[in-house]
Amino acid sequence: MKAVLMTASGAPEVLQLQEVPNPTIEQDTEILVRLRAAGINPIDTKLRQRGTFYPDQMPAILGCDGAGVVEAVGSGVQRFKVGDEVYFCAGGLGAKLGNYAQMAVVDERFVAKKPTSISFAEAAAAPLVLITAWEALFERGRLEPKERVLIHAGAGGVGHVAIQLAKLKGAEVCTTVSSQDKADFVRELGADEVIFYQQTDFVQAVLDWTGGEGVDLAFDTVGGETFYKTFPAVRVYSDLVTILEPDPAYSNWKVARSRNLRISFELMLTPALQGLLEAQQHHAEILEQCATWIDEGSLKIHLAKTFPLEAAAAAHQLLEAGSITGKIALLIEGE
């Protein structure tokens, strides 16, 4: 099969299209998927830049998100049959082969039926961001109906689905954006309040929106100084969830402590990195529910741009340039 190999850590040019052996089913619960598309995520670019979690297993095939058609099934597979269309987040961290390839082998327990109403590219762009937003809002942040939530970078990959999931929960949503186009976009997704963070003090805007109290939950998808600046925008005894590691350059936790905030981290890769089977199965359950909402028309995946498989390096360059609205995916042709 054709696959994009990461031959070393470094610039996007280390991603090279090559011919490699087809993966084979080794466990009775595995399925072989002929991939039609692969999602591009920031974790892909970070692993490419600094090296994978398994540097002794090189070259690597990146790509956690995939969508395609079941080509073969193991003897113990019960949920899928040949010809089923599926999507999933599995592999691509440096040990198991990722999805920048024509074929992938995945345990059926980590896979969900693809939403029927969207393309393979849209489906491949969805899993990691859906799981991340779901866990951050509903499990780490314990979001409840009628609560108010601040979502940073609402037009981004994680942000744009987080807005929709929060609205599906019955929450009120405030989000930060950098342009009028993005403001229009997030309003279409259901955002109740939009803050142009480059021109406005987002903390004061949030306090004005909440009558001085702050939000019940803040979801940080930006990191760095933004994480620390968010502390006073969160209501006393409430939640702040981040998907980034706090920057030690900004180390003043006094406001968070004085407000008795509950700080949580969301890393949806933990189950894969630590081999937590039940948690990986839960990810598939999240994707099943999201597929229902997508097919009902109440949840949308915004695909900003697609690239052919051989242009993975160009896709990485675009993502690293920043300011993408929604997601990017690779289109994968068969042999």
- Percent of residues in beta strands: 25-35%
CATH homologous group name of the largest domain? Medium-chain alcohol dehydrogenases, catalytic domain
Radius of gyration: 20 Å
**Regions with little confidence, pLDDT below 50 for 5+ residues:** none
Question: What value does the average pLDDT take?
Answer: 96
Q: Determine the fraction of residues in helical runs and give it as a percent range.
A: 25-40%
Count of helical regions: 11
Helix-strand sequence: EEEHEEEEHHEHEHEHEHEHEHHEHE
Counting copies of identical and different chains, the oligomeric state is single chain
Structural class estimated from helices and strands: alpha/beta
CATH architecture of the largest domain: Alpha-Beta Complex
Main sheet, how many strands, which sense, barrel? 7 strands, mixed
Cα end-to-end separation: 7 Å
CATH topology description of the largest domain: Quinone Oxidoreductase, Chain A, domain 1
How many beta-strand segments? 15
Q: Looking at the structure, what is the overall shape?
A: globular
